[in-house]
Amino acid sequence: MAAQTYLSELFSLEGRVALVTGGSSGIGRAIAEALARAGASVVVLARGEAALDFTVTELTAAGCRAARVTADLSVRASVRTAAEEAAQIFGEPDILVNSAGINLRPPMSELSDDVWDTTMAVNLDAPFLLGRRFGPAMAARGYGRIIHITSQQAHRAFVHSGAYGVSKGALESLARSQAEAWSPHGVTANTLVPGFVPTPLNAHLSANPTQVAALAARTLTGRNGLPQDFASAAVFLASPASAYVTGQSLFVDGGFSVH
Ligand SMILES: NC(=O)c1ccc[n+]([C@@H]2O[C@H](COP(=O)([O-])OP(=O)(O)OC[C@H]3O[C@@H](n4cnc5c(N)ncnc54)[C@H](OP(=O)(O)O)[C@@H]3O)[C@@H](O)[C@H]2O)c1
Fold it and tell me: 251: which of 87, 122, 158, 193 fits an S-S bond (Cβ 3.0–4.6 Å)?
């Protein structure tokens, strides 16, 4: 019981509200579930209603508090509307997870204005707009946790990094800017950096067993990532336990990045 109390003091999210973009699939889905099971009321946000509904139904059936907002984060007006809608469900979020992302991967020489703009809108502008909407209020309340999901491609070029790598590099800078602005007031901003995690985002790559095996071989653990690998790291970064960790990039990649 003493251990239980100690762990709760460190990691419980009871009474907290979280907004998880991309919370209907892959890494965002696993993080939404982890935060909800740790006690937070969780709003998941994405475009596809069926996957959102499925997520909310599953979380609610597991005894969690969950709700959804349907929005397209590539459109600034939708981001603003969705933020207000999300805040009305369980109250202003204490935890913001930016997991929604797209990776369109055209060769660099063929990278169109459209692909560049859409990539930046979803992967970078939306996290900025949501942070600007919720960060100051978190700071005023003295507690906040912002978690961005970036990529190996924020740090190194591979597999047509193109606009995607640029957007993720900038997202790591955004976390540092947010940390500088709001950490004096109890708000941390950090990023989780995945290795390769087979999800709908990279369905094309995942369908190639040779490439999947080659990526697994590049890790130190000998396997590719699973969405559930992000659960504990997300709970840590969302919890009181991580109060002195800010502006950091935490690699959850089986050692992919270190050799
Ligand atoms: N999987 C990997 O290997 C890997 C590696 C490095 C980094 N990451 C990053 O991890 C994050 C999650 O990726 P994942 O692999 O979990 O991908 P995923 O399974 O494809 O999930 C992406 C999520 O983002 C939502 N989304 C996409 N475009 C959106 C838009 N315009 N507006 C609102 N929501 C949108 C999707 O829902 P809808 O399509 O219904 O909108 C979905 O919920 C991304 O930021 C990605 O860049 C993934």
Answer: 193
Collapsed DSSP state (helix, strand, coil) of residue 207: coil
Ligand 1: which of 161, 199, 208 to mutate, most ligand atoms within 8 Å of CB?
Answer: 199
- pLDDT tens track for 66-94: 999 999 999 999 999 999 999 999 999 99
- Please tell me if the CB atom of residue 200 comes closer than 6 angstroms to any atom of ligand 1: yes
What pTM does this model have? Answer: 0.98
Rounded-to-integer distance, Cα 138 and Cα 135, Å: 5
pLDDT tens track for 2-21: 999 999 999 999 999 999 99
Q: 162-182 vs 113-120: helix axis angle to the nearest 10?
A: 30
Write down the catalytic residue from 6, 143, 164, 244: 164
Q: Report CA(99)–ligand 1 centroid distance (Å).
A: 6
Q: Cβ(22)–Cβ(101) under 8 Å? A: yes
Q: Is residue 160 pLDDT above 90, yes or no?
A: no
Is 47 close to ligand 1, i.e. is its CB under 6 Å away?
A: yes
- Cβ–Cβ < 8 Å for 165, 181: no
Strands in 187-194's sheet, in edge-to-edge order, are: 65-70, 41-46, 17-21, 95-98, 144-149, 187-194, 249-252
From CA 102, how far away is CA 239, in angstroms rounded? Answer: 27
Work out which ligand 1 atom sits closest to the CA atom of 52. 40
